[in-house]
Amino acid sequence: MMKETIKVNGMTCGHCKASVEGALTKLAGVVSAEVSLENKEVTVDFNEEQVTVEQLKTEIEDTGFDVA
Question: Domain spans of the chain?
């Protein structure tokens, strides 16, 4: 199990938080995703054998936010 914190630009509200967390937790291998609007980041717990950090970043960008 790995934990990665990814900086994300453009998240400003609860809807943004829910969008990013929801998109990430749908990916196979992601155990949890927690957005901090204050710190402009998301912390993801995931199984590195099932999903890569690059896939996490791509999913965030596909949701409409910029990975810093």
Answer: 2-67
SS3 assignment, position 59: helix
CA-to-CA dists, residue 9 to 1, 58, 68, angstroms: 26, 14, 6
Stated pTM of the model: 0.94
Q: What is the pLDDT of residues 7-59, one digit of tens each?
A: 999 999 999 999 999 999 999 999 999 999 999 999 999 999 999 999 999 99
CATH architecture of residue range(s) 2-67: 2-Layer Sandwich (3.30)
Q: Contact, 60 vs 6, CB < 8 A?
A: yes
Tens of pLDDT, residue by residue over 46-55, are 999 999 999 9
